[in-house]
Amino acid sequence: MSERVAVLGSGRMGDALVAELAPHHTVLWGSRDPERIAARAAELGATPVDHEAALAADIVFLALWHRDEVPFVSRHRAALAGKIVVSMANPYNADYTGFTTSPDTSAAEVLAAAVPEATVVGAFKNTFWGVFERPEFPEGLSDVLVTGDDQDAKDRVMAALAPMPFRFLDAGPLDRNRTVERMTLLARELSTRYGHHPHVSWRLLGQATPEPTVAS
Ligand SMILES: NC(=O)c1ccc[n+]([C@@H]2O[C@H](COP(=O)([O-])OP(=O)(O)OC[C@H]3O[C@@H](n4cnc5c(N)ncnc54)[C@H](OP(=O)(O)O)[C@@H]3O)[C@@H](O)[C@H]2O)c1
């Protein structure tokens, strides 16, 4: 089903996400400077808008840094009431050695607490921007871990994202982001060490367990 979605931010993740969403959905692309992104938006088939206009969408993807997304939702609590807000941020510290959030929470949970009027779903935290261009690895498609406490909202986001070239996994409730965000930090560290960054992602390797043979 086609949705009216917004993507906030025109950086690496915002651009990559708009490119994937625009062929399937009505996309409002929110920027602090919509004029600057007008030509790129036209190329991708999205509508460049300011932050306020982007809030007309039903699903709002925040391709912003955690330090910017929290003030953003705090300012727009009323307009976000009843909407789905997708948290993509990993709350890295300045030198990417850890997080600005404490170990007993996650960026997604902090965001949800800042905008209780909305329903927060986590996605794409483990998907580095370079993977959008080449999502296929020798081991298969990249996994996108989708989290949330509201199953209907999570299902709706997964349905909206389904045409994209990833494998979407329901990764449980929002507090799973304490793990997902730390998996991303580890992936960043390992991939930088071994020269894969930013073409790095997670894929859970698994095979169905064969039925045990019943002895006659
Ligand atoms: N890069 C990755 O591989 C990756 C992977 C997974 C998750 N993420 C997460 O995705 C988020 C965005 O990452 P990115 O790499 O796309 O960052 P980025 O390239 O720096 O883009 C961030 C965008 O945020 C907007 N912005 C900047 N300062 C702002 C402010 N003060 N207030 C409101 N908006 C502001 C800007 O868009 P406008 O100029 O158009 O307003 C900017 O282009 C981060 O939270 C990151 O943790 C990134």
UniProtKB/TrEMBL annotation:
| UniProt keyword Ribosomal protein present | no
The Pyrroline-5-carboxylate reductase catalytic N-terminal domain covers: 4-91
**Taxonomic superkingdom:** Bacteria
List the Gene3D superfamilies: NAD(P)-binding Rossmann-like Domain (3.40.50.720)
* Key words, A-Z: Oxidoreductase
Q: Name one Pfam family in it.
A: F420_oxidored
Molecular function (GO) terms for this protein are: oxidoreductase activity
Q: Which InterPro entries does this UniProt record tie to the protein?
A: NAD(P)-bd_dom_sf, P5C_Rdtase_cat_N, STEAP_metalloreductase
Q: What is this protein called?
A: Pyrroline-5-carboxylate reductase catalytic N-terminal domain-containing protein
The organism named in the record is: Streptoalloteichus hindustanus
